[in-house]
Structure formats: structure tokens, C-alpha cells
């Protein structure tokens, strides 16, 4: 009987020791320091409806996220590339991709990137059809390439 009590007592002490160092009840002895966010460049994509250069609510959320990601960093440059799918005439697709790039750069200026010079490009439907003749998916977009540096 004494052997069982001693073994149970040792097991309880072991569990109590574990509870102090692990699990959700653990007490941290040193404060946790969050690492400062890096100012690495990144790319975002804004998607459009067919034959449209109007920003969707989701696109505005992507722009707000880009602003948050670039916060505290020096923005060296922003390149906006408008794209279009292969539906329609090539000239119309090129014009549409230009309107998409313009719409995104104007929205970026309103979302905290007003002092940045934008490099705009429009590629229309170039590359929208693969070598096999299949249309490339998700070409109704504008890609935004952010070049960031650590703020001084």
C-alpha cells in the first residue's frame, strides 16, 4: 500500500513540474519580442471582371493590404503591369490592359502611395494563349511589383 502511495505521489509531483513549464499555463520569464517586419519587395495582383477596368471591393482590400505591408518602409518604386485575356481584338485588349494599369496606379495613389512614381506597362493579351493554343487562366488582372527598402 505504501508503495502505491509513493508512486502516486511521485507521479503527481512529475505532472506538477510539467504543468509549470509547458502547456497553456506556462509563465514566460522573459518578454516575447516581435521581430520587426522586413522591408522586402513583394508582388500583388488585382483581378478584374471581363472587359472591365473597375476595381472590385476585393481589389480595394488587396490595395489596403499592400499599404499595410509597405508601412514603415521606403518605397523605391512601384511597377504596375496591366494584362488582358485572349477574348476580343488584340488592340482592344491592349487598351483594356492600359486602363487597368491606370486604374490600379490611381487607386494606389489614393491608398498612401501618392509620392511614388509609378512605372506603368500594358501587355494586352500577349502571352494569354499558350503554345498548345489553350487560353491562359486568370489573365484579367494587373500585377503590382513593389520595390521596398528599410526606411532611414
Secondary-structure map:
Layout: H1 2-21, E1 42-47, H2 57-70, E2 73-82, H3 90-113, E3 118-122, E4 141-150
Parallel strand pairs: 2-3
Antiparallel strand pairs: 1-4, 2-4
Helix pairs in contact: 2-3
Main features:
152 residues; alpha+beta; 60s Ribosomal Protein L30, Chain: A; 4-stranded mixed sheet; 4 strands; disordered N terminus
Plain-language structure description:
With 152 residues, the protein is an alpha+beta fold. It has one domain (42-150): 60s Ribosomal Protein L30, Chain: A (2-Layer Sandwich). Helix content is 38%, strand content 20%. The protein has three helices and four strands. The protein has helices at 2-21, 57-70, 90-113; strands at residues 42-47, 73-82, 118-122, 141-150. The protein has a four-stranded mixed sheet with strand order 1-4-2-3. Helix 2 crosses helix 3. The longest helix is centred in the last third of the chain and has 24 residues, at 90-113. It is elongated, with a radius of gyration of 27 Å. The chain starts with a helix and ends with a strand. 22% of the residues are buried. Mean pLDDT is 82; it is low at 3-13.
